[in-house]
Request: fold
Amino acid sequence: MMIDTSRLVAMTEANQNFSKVAHMVEEEGIAVIMKNNKPQFVVVDFDQYEDIQMMRQNRMDTINSTADRILTENLEAFKELAK
Reply:
């Protein structure tokens, strides 16, 4: 994943100056907080968070419906394998 370095904030700086992180999110839409020189946390505005949660739920719904379809279509084969 590519991360814009202008959106990186060290954990120490985020702890000492969270308003800078909040301002960055307001301006850039995202801030990435580094811990031990690695991206550890992402801060986004709440609307974007809701969109992410909706996408995650849609993905889980798709996975579950696909799994149900595969099980239904192949139920006899699964029963035979279970013997």
Summary: Residues 46-73 form the longest helix (28 residues).
